[in-house]
Specification:
heterodimer, A: about 80 residues, two-stranded antiparallel ribbon, 6 helices, B: about 150 residues, 4 helices, disordered C terminus
Chain lengths: ~80, ~150
Amino acid sequence: MNNDHISNQIRRLRFDHGEMTQQELADKVGVTRQTILAIEAGKYAPSLPLAFRIARAFNTSVENVFQYPDGEIVADVAKPMS
Amino acid sequence: MNSTQKTAWIFIVSFLFTVVGVVYVGSILYFRRLPPRPLGQIAVAAVTCAAVGFLVLIVFFLAKRQSRVEPEADERDHLIRGKALTISSVCSSLLLAVVLLILGLTLGQTGSIPVYLVTLILWGIFQVALLIYALVVLVQYGRGGKDE
């Protein structure tokens, strides 16, 4: 379960949304509290559907919840065709 | 603690009960006599009470959820269970191979063992597989942590 250096703003967003507890967020997105804890601590990278559900729980976009560092895209994929 | 972690703890406790039972019965068979009466009766009563209490506790332990809408398992639980199952299957297969190798080397081509011993060996390996499964599950969950 590699987190692949994905950082997140879940902790901040929870506090911005009325100090939502991990259990409340877990109930909203349909996972266990342990999973929210692991995601928040960066120990587990959620699936895409779960990432969307978490973003929707905060009424925001996935990019505002999860961040992937720049410069880690495989160079060949980004190369323009000559 | 979610249901996967609870199940893992139940496997560990049941393994410990099994070890106690095996040591007790094994000592009786090995020494070819029952333990002194008060000690034997107390031991059997204590283990029986503990086992019954354990079974009752399991029901409440598993039924109690972190919240009313908590799922039985989510995507991370499935990943953890899958990895634990793989590791315990590989370990128990290797253990079975080692046991068969040792039996083959010690008994030779024409040697034989009692039928009940085969059952005990397979049952023991199954118990070890459950223990490994439980330990891998608990290690993957880590220490958990409190709500923040």
